[in-house]
Design goal:
Layout: E1 2-7, H1 14-27, E2 34-39, H2 45-52, E3 58-61, H3 78-83, E4 88-91, H4 94-99, H5 104-116, E5 120-125, H6 129-133, H7 137-145, H8 148-151, E6 157-160, H9 174-192, E7 201-204, H10 212-216, E8 223-226, H11 233-245
Helix pairs in contact: 1-2, 1-11, 7-9
The protein binds 2-phosphoglycolic acid.
Length: about 250
């Protein structure tokens, strides 16, 4: 199975999202075992879901709260995300780790809450430039993955997103991706056993139609989590077609 997920981050208004869906759906032909996902901001979710539902594309939220309800001003719960039409939720994105203080401890209850509400958690992991330069990449990833036994086997997609490659135009080299994805696979199998073999591992960080084809040839790269390039329907479509052809 190959997977391409658009992470729109805090971009687009309803009219832009509608135009994106129209342009994308006009040319998109579901094919083979390729899953397509779109992660819009909360206010756009319902409109995007309504438009893409018949295409089979999954809709993801970009974060969610661990508690089902209560006095958490500004937050959105997993039941609300599910109720708004989402199939999954991105968790642990580096921007949430960086700006919202997301940690392994806050992610465990979020993954559980997502699963309890039939939402597929797409967990992001990745090292900063300082950590890579200090030769700590694998150690950082081991730490970020260490929560897996606590949440146990269950629906899960992973995305390796080196922080230094996100939005910078600096994509990780095929060698770096190969090394890290092999390491992540090994860790996930060590932590979850047989079930770990089935967890798809996406790559994210400046994915474009210019580098995606090569990334898709790397063992254990199940696809991409795409920011910037996913805002342009033609580019996103091209990425999906590359996944279909791989
Ligand atoms: P990018 O973002 O493709 O713009 O680098 C990827 C992400 O943050 O998921």
């Amino acid at each position: 199975m190959k997977i391409v997920v658009a992470n729109w981050k805090m971009n687009l208004l309803r009219k832009d999202a509608a135009a994106f869906c129209e342009a994308f759906l006009k040319a998109y032909k579901p094919k083979g075992r390729v899953e397509v996902g779109i992660a819009p901001s909360f206010p756009l979710i319902r409109a995007v879901k309504n438009r893409v539902a018949t295409s089979g594309a999954k809709v993801f939220a970009q974060n969610g709260h661990a508690e089902a309800k209560g006095a958490f001003t500004g937050e959105v719960s997993m039941p609300q995300i599910q109720d708004s039409g989402c199939d999954g939720v991105i968790l642990g994105h580096s921007e949430c780790r960086q700006y919202n203080g997301e940690t392994e401890a806050t992610l465990v209850p979020k993954i559980r809450a997502a699963r309890e509400n039939e939402l597929l958690p797409l967990l992001c992991i990745g090292e900063t430039l300082a950590q890579r330069e200090a030769n700590q990449t694998l150690e950082v990833l081991r730490q970020q993955l260490s929560i897996l036994p606590e949440v146990g086997a269950g629906p899960l997609w992973l995305a390796y997103e080196p922080v230094w490659a996100i939005g910078t135009g600096k994509v990780a080299t095929p060698e770096q991706v190969r090394e890290v994805h092999a390491f992540i696979r090994e860790e996930v199998v060590r932590l979850l056993g047989e079930a770990g073999k089935e967890v798809p591992i996406l790559y994210g960080g400046s994915v474009t139609p210019d580098n995606f084809e090569e990334l898709l040839t790397i063992p254990d790269v199940a696809g991409g989590l795409v920011g910037g390039a996913s805002l342009v329907p033609e580019k996103f479509l091209k990425l999906v077609q590359q996944a279909q052809a791989s």
